[in-house]
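Rather than argue in generalities, we have chosen a single entry, letters for residues, whole numbers for local backbone shapes, without further comment.
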Amino acid sequence: MRADPPAEVAWIVDEIVDLLAGVPVRVLLERPSRRGRDPVLDFYESFLHHYDRGLRKRRGVYYTPSELVSYVVRSVHLRTGRLEPGAIVDRTEPDERMSGIALARVWSKNGTWAYTLYNGGTSHAFVHALDTRTRTARCIDLPWSGQAQSILDGVGLAVAGPMLVLSTRGGAVLSRIDTRTFSVQA
């Protein structure tokens, strides 16, 4: 289920997203923050604390440093609010751990699939494709690793028919992913 912001604040959310899309994530992550901590932690702690503490708690929106977490996707039963048993993993790579920083997300036209682009840090970039109805996932490896992932700063995702298109703000296509076969055309 996709939750859009209320109409009266949607414009500011769009402005914030546009503003943050231009942030050079790689530079921020390489430079220590003013308190010597992860700059993402500094942002989330302050923003979420002041934005809406109740909403933050209800949705479980808390920042956890990547060093403390291995990425696990779980689903929540909407009627009971309880976690469904078991993790949602890519059955073709069940032992591969996901970790990274989400850079962009787009939903399929029917709202079933969520596609999230990740900078994999010291590993490689990937797209996490999550089928929210069947509780299945695919991790789609992309050809960029290490520092080469900086090309993905500010990249956009779009669904165009059966293709997921990764493109720069200027419109240059970096890659296409066939959403039926998950094959990558770089």
Confidence is low (pLDDT under 50) at residues 67-71. Residues 7-21 form the longest helix (15 residues).
